[in-house]
Amino acid sequence: MNDMIYFDNSATTVCLDKAAAAAKEYMLEKPFNPAAAYSAAVKTERDLNAARANIASKIGADPGELIFTSCGTESNNTAIFGSLKAMRGKTRVIISPVEHPSVYEPAMELKEQGYDVVFAPVDVTGRVKLDGLAALMTPSTGLISIMHVNNETGAINDIDGIYSMMKRLAPECLLHSDGVQAFMKEAPVSCDMYSASGHKLHAPKGVGALYIRRGVRVKPYLMGGGQESGMRSGTSNMPGIMAFNAAVEDYALNRAAYRERILSVKERLYGNLKRIKDVTLNSPPMGEGAAHILNVSFLGVRGEVLLNALSEKGLCVSTGSACAAHKRGRNRVLNAMGILGERQDGAIRFSFSHFNTVDEADTAAQMIEEQVSLLRRFRRR
Ligand code: PLP
Asked: Residues of 102-138 as b/e, b for ≥16 C-beta within 10 angstroms?
């Protein structure tokens, strides 16, 4: 990756050396199944539970409240489909229209099955409007799923505020929050279920976690050998889990420094881009959204054309969620925010990690300026 500038860290991150070393250790030196009975396996099970306790502690949870999954998508699917029984006959499900496909598509499946799926209104940055959400919280509401940090704009939802509002207006309802873009980066929040994913945080792909508050009865999504206290069968992914734990520990130790570094890159890039004519900010104002996500539109340019031109120069960015990149049609998320027309067409998401530098922000801005003016010249001819 030395010859490229990687500004697509919301899609995935490079694996930390420490995380890769932990994975290697559990592949080559400690390949034991933690469910086996001999002493090496029992020791592996202890390591698994220590990793669980450590990761759970980062959101103020007990070890018994955290299960490991294969990814954020699995965590979200488990939370949504698994909650149906706990909804006890209630039929209303509330999500926001800007949820990641791994929440949106399960909600659409529930709609097909006859559930009353409704959308909480969002503002122009994708943040859920609390009064609009409150108006939807009827006694028939059984599940609310609202993301913590929006993956396209970095807007941060007030999950604590939503939870206390829900406790007042629909006390039997469950609140799930997709924390895939927020875990370790934002302060922990109160809710009934919370999803996280390792590869957004410098662990390898293939590991995630789901917090399920004690007392919340979620039906397992995968059944079989009864691993993860019966909540998620399948032999534990020890290399992935131990790597996830190493990445979480690294983030916990360096959180303030990483945040400062990431913010400085974001602010530098935006400061540079603002100087280009006809650039609009789709993220919340600087200082308000998540530090690692910046979404801007270059009016008069098609985002995917700019993305390809920048890719040729070694700059990796995105026009939206990688999971939706292969889907045709308009951008559902930007549509719901009211970002339409030229502004939607020219939207680009930049997302950062602590491996990025302000020099990269300067180089990237120069490349972008050149490509934008070239593309605008073609288009306006
Ligand atoms: N939720 C959000 C907000 C995301 O950004 C993503 C990935 O882009 C996911 C869920 C899915 O996570 P995973 O790739 O681990 O399945």
From this structure: bbbbbbeebeeeebbbbbbebeebbbbeeeebeebbe
